Amino acid sequence: MIAIERLQQESAREYVYRLLKANIINLTLQPGQSISEQEIAERLHVSRTPVREAFIKLAQEKLLDIYPQKGTYVSLIDTDQVEESKFVRETLEKEVIKLACVSFPGEELFQLASCVALQELCITEKNYHKFFELDENMHATIFKGCKKARAWFMLQQMNAHYNRVRMLNLAVGYDWEQLILQHKDLVRAIREKDKALAKRTIDLHLNKVVVDLEYLRGEYSHYFLPRKTGAQDDKTAK
Fold it and tell me: Which of 44, 40, 146 is nearest to 93 (CA)?
């Protein structure tokens, strides 16, 4: 697992939960992979109680599947959740980007430009984990600059399956340059208060998940829940 620093005043349960969730989202803990309370407790030098509590919380968020007497597994990616998260994020972020093109603090604008510059370095270093972290920071900064930080926090509570698809796409690594160009256009749109450019760019940017999902599902089918069969398909099968 990728280690993360424990925060001051953070309980063992909170730390284990945050670390496991980060490793599930960044695909270090892969969909379908088996994990055990004992193994995690030993690796993190904590008792099994905070690990068990973290497992329960992650299961409630549909990131772990716990089967009594059988074991615990990282959940497969649920495309229904991906599409719902994309819908909510698209709805909110389109409105936020409009606000950013009206008024946006200079300090946050500098942070956006810095994120893009660092992402270009990530391409050189082929560091997709850091690229993803900077991508998240960039969009969080846009929300923060528009005084909508709590809305971003709310999005993060439902974005785990969506973010795993984004991470998988970055791991494939074929379209980083396209993402960088879109990020540059977003920064330029905000700087120049160009609402039309912002709308075109955010539409392209957020719809990439839909475009890429079918390809990723075909190449990494073992990472995804099977497609749900509709009633009409059931009749046909019979």
Answer: 146
Q: Dump pLDDT digits (tens) for 200-238.
A: 999 988 887 777 888 899 899 999 999 776 544 444 444
**Helix ranges restricted to H, the chain:** 12-25, 37-44, 48-60, 79-100, 106-125, 128-145, 149-156, 160-172, 176-192, 195-219, 231-237
Q: Please list the residues that pair with 64 across neighbouring strands.
A: 74
Q: What's the confidence (pLDDT) of residue 211?
A: 77
Inter-residue contact 196 to 188 (CB < 8 Å): no
In CATH, the architecture of 12-74 is Orthogonal Bundle (1.10)
Whole-number Å distance between alpha carbons of 229 and 184: 41
Distance (Å, rounded) from C-alpha 178 to C-alpha 170? 11
Q: Where are the domains of the chain?
A: 12-74, 79-223
Whether the CB-CB separation of 201 and 191 falls below 8 Å is answered with no
Cβ-contact 131, 119 below 8 angstroms: yes
C-alpha R_g of the chain: 19
What pLDDT score was predicted for residue 164?
94
Q: Top-level CATH class of 79-223?
A: mainly alpha
Q: How far apart are the first and last CA of the chain?
A: 45
Residue with the two structure tokens 């969730």:
21
DSSP state letters, 62-100: TSEEEETTTEEEEPPB-HHHHHHHHHHHHHHHHHHHHHH
Quick check: 170 and 133 in contact, CB under 8 A?
A: no
CA nearest neighbour of 133 among 147, 121, 119, 144: 119
